Amino acid sequence: FNANLDWAHKLLGLIISRGYHKKLVFRVALRVNEKIIDTDLLSHLRAAGVWFVMFGVENGNQAMLDHMKKGITIEEVKRAFRVAQDAGLKTEAFFIVGMPGETHQTVQDSLNLYKAIKPYWGGFSMAMPFPGTGLTEELRKSGNLLCEDYDKFGPECKAVKTDTLSADEIANYVKLLNGMARQDKIMHPKQLMYAIKGKVFGR
């Protein structure tokens, strides 16, 4: 929503001038980049009826974010959540598990960042290699693409692995992290590793 600030402010102004802010409440997705998220934007969002903002964080490790070409920093993520929450907005954080280069440590980094930003709601998803994307080509070249039947893609589809994480471990991470996010229950790193190796899920 804030990729073009001039457009965003113009649209929000129209919503307010036409009185829609008195009838609607809605949520928007924002980028975390410091240059395009400030108190003026957040105040304008609130005035226009926005109560909930969503951020695609994706990973808590800077090297992973750079490899994914996100164009953001960990500090920008922390700042975005802080200023949004200070403005009285509810926040949501989206993370991806299983991108190329993912390790047990980078997943732990994502968990640590989740704890630091304290979103109102959060979600962890498995990496999905859709047709024609750079991700699909990278996975194919590395031998980490396990499924190209896109009709089967979904929560139970184990389509990818990494050099250090099996498809089952990635799926277990997603299941466990989502459960922890919902319950606001964060495990000690040793407990987390024990669970991911299959003990919690009876493997």
UniProtKB/TrEMBL annotation:
Residues of the Radical SAM core domain: 1-181
GO molecular function: catalytic activity; iron-sulfur cluster binding; metal ion binding
Keyword rRNA processing: no
Swiss-Prot/TrEMBL cofactor(s): [4Fe-4S] cluster
Keyword Flavoprotein: no
InterPro entries named among the record's database cross-references: BchE-like, rSAM, rSAM_sf
Keywords: Iron, Iron-sulfur, Metal-binding, S-adenosyl-L-methionine
Name of the protein: Radical SAM core domain-containing protein
Species, as recorded: marine sediment metagenome
